[in-house]
Design goal:
The complex is a heterodimer of chains A (about 625) and B (about 50).
Chain A (H helix, E strand, L loop, with lengths): L1 H23 L12 H5 L16 H9 L21 H36 L2 H35 L1 H11 L2 H21 L7 H33 L14 H5 L4 H29 L4 H22 L2 H15 L1 H8 L6 H23 L13 H16 L8 H7 L13 H24 L2 E2 L5 H28 L3 H29 L4 E2 L10 H26 L4 E3 L3 E2 L10 H28 L15
Chain B lengths: L1 H36 L13
Chain lengths: ~625, ~50
């Protein structure tokens, strides 16, 4: 009861305190001094004193303000960029990408930790709470690493791109201070959330703990959306005129056309990425344990991580599609640079990585089916799912414009293959990705069903409905892609992709609803956590590697799409690196950053393990009394 | 027993046919709805209208 009273009184007290401060703070005692009455009261308002010169009227003040020119973006010359003997862009690239990797990780982990903690509270199963606590423990060092990298990035940016940073400071103004201030809040909530885990474990205190977790997530998300506004401003500036002078308020500057698409895309991607990274930890601990109980625990942890990663991954292509659509809507030139011009081949590399992720995720699910005996009913479907995945993956990686020499072009009769060429354009890719997502969901559904036997009378009808939804949805996606993609005009081609997405979502949503209803009071078959082949854990290693490389690749695309601009069409990049680097160079850079990140993650895992290690006190030597 | 088995297969077949019919209509309507929302009307045979 005492705790409930405290919980009720605390917010009221805080509100009263803030109100008090808000009223009293501006009221500052002034030193009466020895000045005249006019000196003391004239600045406060429009008081015309007898004998004094007439005061400026509002229109005169406005005229003075108007004559002050808004400042355009700077136009640095080559010599204005500091030269430290190595490529400035390479240094910023490494630090920025590493910062983004860790930032994504430490924003994502508290998100799903909070949900797992809630699941533990509602189910009463303490294993969820313990696992959530362990996820936080693994990622704790990551917060410090993120801050170190962020600080280093800021220093390097100010050193190497002083004019650009001065401009960004001017445009975003006090928002930078808000960003810095949020780290105080995030640190407070992080430390109280993690270190208070066992102190606020049960009853009303658990709700306090969950509130701390919620506030941790709120501060983290706010930090992310603020930082996103800088990146999107550089790509699609808003709130400024054609020479970069600020003409809007901070909200207009932040809320550009790409801000919300990037917010959504990064929010979902962070969750998927975070799940993949902690899954690698679970896989490592599984392989290095010989105790069956520990193996069971880490097997379950790995499954949960993969579940989070793949579930968050499913809507990600749609968020990315929205982002690209907004880029095209903002600037056709930028859109074409990204997907129809010099950067187009990167989306083939992206297809390879996403195919890797989906194949690894599906393989882990199939291997996991050996945990339950009831999975024998569904194993015959696995080869068909694998076939669909491989075929759609091959379609997705098929390029449109081939890299050919002049003689090869004349032999081929053009730069496109006459049979495979049509598979290189978006309608084929849309068919492929939607089918990959549907069959991945099918793998999920089969896995979830494999330890249950439905007892409801309408189970046969429910299964018939589910089969019909899968078959018709797949047929619809293929029809939409082929007919509108190749036999109608461009507008219908682009519009049909939305209907394809809707078809995929119908499958996913109806699958979840039907299974939830159909397996109520189902007979549960025994599940043997830990009974999974070791090779499945290597799929959990492959996932974060592919995710990390993919994030690095897409970061390269996002940054390069501005071509030779610091801020697109507003502030030109006149540095020695004002060109899009070659794909080979970018590939090497992304690989270097990925390896560095994985080394840091290994350090993070090692520190997490270290905290639980206790050295045995050596026995006393000789016969000392 | 064989009669019962035949009836079982028949009722399953009916369920499947009805399920397919319902789902086909559902997706047909979904196509019209989604395309229409984007200002891309379709004819009854799903060809672009206008």
């Amino acid at each position: 009861m005492m705790h409930s009273k405290f919980a009720k009184l605390f917010p009221m007290s805080l509100l009263l305190m803030l109100l008090f401060l808000g009223i009293t703070a501006p009221v500052q005692a002034t030193d009466p001094g020895t000045g005249s009455v006019a000196d003391r009261i004239a600045p406060v308002g429009q008081v015309q004193l007898t004998g004094e010169p007439p005061l400026e009227t509002e229109s005169e003040v406005a005229a003075v303000e108007e004559s002050v020119e808004p400042r355009a973006a700077p136009t640095p010359s080559r010599s204005d960029y500091p030269d430290i003997g190595v490529s400035s862009r390479a240094i910023v690239w490494v630090l920025a990408q590493l910062h983004l990797f860790f930032g994504a990780l430490v924003l994502a982990v508290p998100l799903f930790v909070l949900i797992i903690e809630l699941v533990g509270l509602f189910t009463g199963d303490e294993r969820y709470d313990d696992m959530a606590h362990e996820f936080m423990k693994i990622s704790l060092t990551g917060f410090s690493i993120t801050a170190i990298l962020g600080g280093s990035l800021a220093l390097v940016l100010f050193l190497l791109y002083p004019d650009f940073m001065a401009y960004m400071m001017r445009v975003f103004g006090a928002q930078w201070l808000v960003y810095a201030g949020l780290f105080f809040f995030e640190s407070f909530f992080l430390y109280t959330y993690y270190y208070g885990w066992n102190a606020f474990r049960y009853g009303n205190r658990k709700w306090v703990h969950l509130s701390l977790g919620l506030m941790l997530n709120a501060s983290g998300l706010t930090i992310m959306v603020l930082a996103n506004s800088w990146a999107t401003f550089m790509m699609a500036p808003s709130g400024v005129n054609e020479v970069g002078a600020v003409v809007g308020n901070i909200w207009e500057v932040m809320k550009g056309p790409l801000w919300n698409p990037i917010n959504l895309h990064r929010f979902i991607a962070n969750i998927a990425f975070g799940g993949a990274v902690v899954g690698a930890y679970a896989a490592f601990k599984f392989l290095s344990s010989s105790d069956p109980e520990k193996r069971a625990h880490y097997d379950w942890m790995g499954y949960t991580s993969n579940f989070i990663a793949i579930l968050a991954f499913l809507p990600l292509p749609f968020a990315g599609y929205w982002l690209m659509a907004e880029i095209y809507a903002y600037s056709q030139q930028m859109g074409i640079t990204a997907m129809g011009g010099i950067l187009a081949w990167l989306f083939i590399v992206q297809a390879v990585l996403i195919g890797t992720i989906l194949l690894a995720g599906n393989f882990y699910l199939w291997a996991g089916m050996s945990r339950t005996d009831g999975s024998e009913r569904y194993k015959w479907l696995v080869k068909f799912i694998a076939l669909v995945l491989v075929v759609t993956f091959l379609i997705w990686v098929t390029p449109h414009s081939l890299i050919l020499s002049a003689s090869e072009i004349s032999q081929l009769g053009g730069s496109h293959h006459h049979i495979l060429g049509p598979l290189g354009i978006m309608p084929a890719k849309n068919i492929a990705v939607n089918l990959m997502l549907i069959v991945t969901f099918l793998s999920f559904q089969l896995y979830r069903r494999s330890d249950k036997v439905a007892t409801v009378r309408w189970a046969p009808a429910g299964n018939a409905l589910m089969v019909a939804i899968y078959v018709v949805a797949i047929a619809n996606i293929i029809f939409l892609g082929v007919y509108y993609g190749y036999f109608t005009n461009t507008v219908y081609k682009v519009g049909s992709s939305v209907a394809q997405v809707a078809s995929t979502l119908v499958v996913i949503i109806s699958g979840i609803v039907i299974d939830t209803l159909m397996f109520r009071n189902a007979k549960i078959l025994p599940s043997h956590w830990g009974r999974i082949p070791d090779r499945a854990q290597y799929a959990l290693f492959a996932l974060p590697i592919a995710f990390t490389w993919l994030m690095g690749l897409m970061g390269y695309v996002r940054s390069s799409v501005k071509t030779h601009w610091h801020v697109y069409t507003v502030m030109k990049d006149n540095s020695p690196d004002n060109f899009i680097p070659t794909i080979a160079y970018a590939g090497n850079m992304i690989t270097i950053v990925t390896v560095l990140f994985l080394l840091c993650v290994l350090f993070m895992f090692w520190v997490a393990n270290l905290s639980g290690t206790r050295q045995v006190k050596p026995a006393a030597e000789g016969g000392a009394a | 027993m064989e009669e019962k088995h035949k009836m079982g297969i028949f009722s399953t077949l009916i369920s499947v046919v009805i399920a397919f019919a319902i789902v086909l209509v559902l997706f047909y309507g979904l196509n019209h709805l989604i395309m229409g929302m984007q200002g891309l009307p379709l004819n009854v045979d799903l060809t672009p209208a206008g």
